[in-house]
Amino acid sequence: MKYYFRDRLSDGSLLKLAHNIVDLSYISDHHDYHPHFEIYYSHKHQQQNVTINSQMVQVYTPHVTISAPFTIHDMAPTEQNLYFECYVLFFSENLIRSTAEQLLPSSFFRDYTNCIFPLTDEQNEYLYSILELIKNEDASESEKKAAFLTFVNALFRMVPKEKRIHTGKSNYYITEVLNFIYQNIDSINTAADILNVFHVSFSKLNRDFKQNLGLSVHQVIVNCRISKAIDLLTNTELKIKEIATQCGFENEYYFYVFFKNQTGKTPSTFRSQP
Predict the structure, then answer these.
(1) Would you give the DSSP letter of residue 249?
(2) HSE, side-chain direction, 13 A CA sphere, residue 207
(3) Nearest Cα to Cα of residue 15 among 71, 72, 96, 75
(4) Which of 13, 63, 194, 220 is the most exposed place for a label (fewest CB within 10 A)?
């Protein structure tokens, strides 16, 4: 299995909801890692394997899983179930800083990320009613944020500590490396720029990346670089030369060659497309 970098909030939003219905008889390589928090909500009775940072837990009931930025995670049903349905909430640290810290325990997202919350049918029914408010297309952003906070507060209140399942420790070093690459993509040229910071050999880092992400160090750097480029081309009016610099290229020419090789389009063509 391979994981690819995708920023679900690259449009500047603080909160986004996705509704996924997956047919396991036809699955594309869609697994990803990202720089924001995620709440995964499986509201139906379907046996699933929840894997966080290489640690797998089997869950048999409706449940909520909260994962931290750059956590390497995968939620999938067992082979007995060909179809499964879930909701995924992506949210940023800015949302936590602007609203959540005022209404949640200050340590909540430190203590309860990479954590599974199994739900009873009654708890599940109540949480789903709150989710309906977030799903409402007519609701304002402030109303959706309020519903999000209500959802998390209810989760914290309803599921006792002894029922919560902690897995995939948050300080797993691979996630720290991914965060470092993302934050410093403009100055990272080779794996040596990473090794010098984390004091790990190239063979170990590359082996751990392939084991956990299915990708080499070089491929991860490429994924982050192209995602940063797409983000800047889509959501800013920066000149191509400025984007090239922010993505770690010495000049526009090398950026053009890289971008076209990865996407099949030049940066200018990509930016002008509808």
Answers:
(1) -
(2) 5
(3) 96
(4) 13
Backbone phi, then psi, for 124, in 5-degree steps? -65, -45
CA distance linking residue 114 with residue 103, whole number of Å: 21
Residue 188 carries which DSSP code?
-
Q: Where are the beta strands (DSSP E) in the chain?
A: 4-5, 15-23, 32-33, 37-42, 48-52, 55-59, 63-67, 73-77, 83-91, 115-118, 165-166
The angle subtended at Cα 273 by Cα 228 and Cα 89, nearest 5°, is 50
Tell me the two tokens of residue 99. 């609203």
Cβ-contact 144, 161 below 8 angstroms: no
- The answer for residues whose C-beta is within 8 angstroms of residue 148's C-beta and 6 or more apart is 15, 89, 91, 95, 134
Please determine, for residue 168, whether its predicted confidence score (pLDDT) is greater than 90: no
> Within 13 Å of residue 81, how many CA atoms lie on the same side as its CB?
16
pLDDT in tens, 9-36: 887 788 999 998 776 555 555 578 899 9
CB atoms within 10 A of CB 208: 16
pLDDT of residue 100: 62
Cα atoms in the Cβ-side hemisphere of radius 13 Å centred on 124: 16
Cα-flanking dihedrals φ and ψ of residue 185, to 5°? -60, -25
- For residue 144, what are its two tokens? 């959706």
**Burial zone of 121 (CB within 10 Å; 0-12 exposed, 13-18 middle, 19+ buried):** exposed
CA distance 122 to 49: 23
